[in-house]
Amino acid sequence: MTKLQDVLDEIAGEAAGASDRGVVAHYIPELAKVDPNQFGIAVALPDGEVLTAGDAATPFSIQSVSKVFTLSLALGKLGDSLWARVGREPSGNAFNSIVQLEQEKGRPRNPFINAGAIAVADLILSGHQPREAIGEIVRFIRYLADDDTIRIDERVARSETEHGDRNASLAHFMRAFGSIEHPVDHVLGVYFHQCAIAMTCHQLARAGLYLASQGQNPLTGAQVVPAQRARRINAIMLMCGHYDGSGEFAYRVGLPGKSGVGGGILAIAPGIASIAVWSPGLDLVGNSKLGTAALEQLTRQMGWSVFGA
Ligand code: GLU
């Protein structure tokens, strides 16, 4: 694996010298404080080895990357009946768009746009108090990463709650259509806390390994989701994981991936690796600028694109 380590070191070296790093998310004030001059990458392999470069041990706000894990959790509880509440088509719209929601009568296009993830949070809440649902999500992610130190950054959760009018609008809108069952403040409480989970690239790469290993976590041997479900989650990541930049990401990187406005991306090379990259500066559609460039370089040099060389 020396070639892989060399490639990671080269990527991190180039990122350290990059002048155009994108812009950190400003609409969540706590995220606006993050130093944009950071970059980390970690690659977890099915044998448990994790190779890293740069700031791979620095925790960051995983934001929408959490939506992959809450989708996995909710599918485990509800099975395919989840799809009655949320679609699985690319949106072609911004992550927080409300326009499509009106046209499609409150059924979000997919589980990775904000509206879709809020609907999934509502499903996870069933039979629980918000605190229990949040605890269940954190425990699930700790179990995936095999790491009990993973925590919620309460300052980020508070910051999102205080500035979450847009997400509150989406949630109220869906509730008006009957697409959300629980009180909006409960659903948003769960959603904001899942987004505020802080993880390092090292932890995130390990947590995503089940998607690279036919649903099985090779660290623990546990079958997290059936193999067919892992394949389907990867398909949704490929088509919908980068909002209205999903086509561009597939074109440049060629892997299923999910981004977050904290600047993290989880990308899956099925059968090969789970990759986490983080750099806080975002491009115009809200995806990590250097993170995307790093994944493009990694897949090219390692020949890991699902579409071949
Ligand atoms: N918590 C963010 C929001 O709701 C998530 C968006 C993202 O990471 O893309 O706006």
Any overview of this molecule?
This protein has 309 residues and is α+β, with helices and mostly antiparallel strands. It folds into two domains: 2-63 and 198-302, DD-peptidase/beta-lactamase superfamily (Beta-lactamase); 64-197, Beta-lactamase (3-Layer(aba) Sandwich). The protein contains 14 helices and eight strands. Glutamic acid is lined by residues 63-64, 95-96, 114, 160, 167, 195, 260-261, 286.
Radius of gyration: 18 Å
**What's the CATH H-level superfamily name of the largest domain?**
DD-peptidase/beta-lactamase superfamily
Taking pLDDT < 50 over at least 5 consecutive residues as the criterion, the unreliable ranges are none
> What is the average of the pLDDT values?
96
Order of strands, main sheet, comes to: 2-1-8-7-6
Number of helices: 14
CATH class of the largest domain: Alpha Beta
In brief:
The chain has 309 residues and is α+β, with helices and mostly antiparallel strands. The chain has two domains: 2-63 and 198-302, Beta-lactamase; 64-197, Beta-lactamase, CATH 3.40.710.
List the helices and strands and how they pair.
Layout lengths: L1 H15 L12 H4 L7 E5 L5 E5 L5 E2 L4 H13 L20 H5 L10 H12 L4 H16 L5 E2 L1 H9 L2 H12 L7 H12 L1 E3 L1 H7 L1 H4 L14 H14 L5 H7 L4 E3 L4 E6 L3 E6 L10 H14 L7
Antiparallel strand pairs: 1-2, 1-8, 3-5, 4-5, 6-7, 7-8
Helix pairs in contact: 1-14, 3-5, 5-8, 5-9, 6-9, 6-10, 7-9, 8-9
The protein binds glutamic acid.
The site of glutamic acid has 11 residues, from loops.
